[in-house]
Amino acid sequence: MLLRAVNAGVNSRITMASLRECVEETGISVLATYLPSGNLVIEAPRTSTARLAEDLGRAVGQRLGRPTPAVVLTGTQLDRVLREAPAVWREQPGHAHYVIFLLGSVTAAELLSGMEPEPDVEQITPAGRRIYWSVRTDASRSVLARVGRAQEYQHITVRTLSTLERMRELVHKRDPRTTRGPVAPQSPSINLRGAKETQGWLRERQDHDRKQRRRSTH
């Protein structure tokens, strides 16, 4: 399960112990957590992932006092997300790789409307209810960083490729019956004051862009 905007600001603070407790109060078992940004491996009765995401997002949202949308993926679905990452990512040193999950009714077309990425800076690949995004770690600009200022930002949640790979490892460790797909390349951490993978990634990206622009004018 991937929760949106957990521990990304003063109004979304929650310890992983409290988050685990909140989820388990709904009758769902939490098998593992990864990073303090809302990544959980859960065990749940057979039901639709959409229903689970709605119920668990509501429970966590009530604890935080704010809407907290969620994405729930089965082990097989997570395998597919990683398997369908662009093959070119395997040949892109010096890039950071992200997967953007669309929440609610927002579409990739709406999110990307009017954006014209520069191919030598970033690559954006829509794929159903997700968008694959690769950007140079030394880039001074990024069109997708504008999403942080758009209304649609409330309808996405983002994870680095390396976080999703680690989540897959945790899933397979808990349930070895699931099948593993080919391993995608590890994603380098983008050098933004040590920013890792939380939902503050856009704010960090924008700060980085502004600093690079200032340097280029001196």
Feature tags:
alpha+beta; two-stranded antiparallel sheet; four-stranded antiparallel beta sheet; 2 domains; Alpha-Beta Plaits; 32% helix
- Overall SS class: alpha+beta
Listing every helix as H and every strand as E from the N terminus to the C terminus, the arrangement reads EHEEHEHEHEEEHH
Contiguous uncertain segments of 5+ residues? 176-199
Please compute the radius of gyration using only Cα atoms.
17 Å
Level-1 CATH class name of the largest domain: Alpha Beta
Mean pLDDT across all residues, rounded?
80
Major sheet attributes: 4 strands, antiparallel
The number of helical elements comes to 6
Strand content: 15-25%
CATH-scheme architecture of the largest domain = 2-Layer Sandwich
Task: Say how many strands there are.
Answer: 8
Helical content (DSSP H or I, runs of 4+): 25-40%
Summarize the structure.
This protein is an alpha+beta fold and 218 residues long.
Task: Explain the overall architecture.
- The relative contact order is 0.17.
- α3 (75-83) packs antiparallel against α5.
- The strands form three sheets. Strands 6-7-5-8 form a four-stranded antiparallel beta sheet. Strands 1-4 form a two-stranded antiparallel ribbon. A two-stranded antiparallel ribbon has the order 2-3.
- Residues 176-199 have low confidence and may be disordered.
- It has six helices and eight strands.
- The protein is 32% helix and 18% strand.
- It is α+β, with helices and mostly antiparallel strands.
- It is globular, with a radius of gyration of 17 Å.
- The protein folds into two domains: 2-72; 86-160 and 185-216, Alpha-Beta Plaits (2-Layer Sandwich), CATH 3.30.70.
- It has helices spanning 16-24, 49-64, 75-83, 108-112, 161-174, 201-216, and strands spanning 2-3, 29-33, 40-43, 70-71, 95-102, 122-127, 130-136, 156-160.
- The termini are far apart.
- The longest helix is centred in the N-terminal third of the chain and has 16 residues, at 49-64.
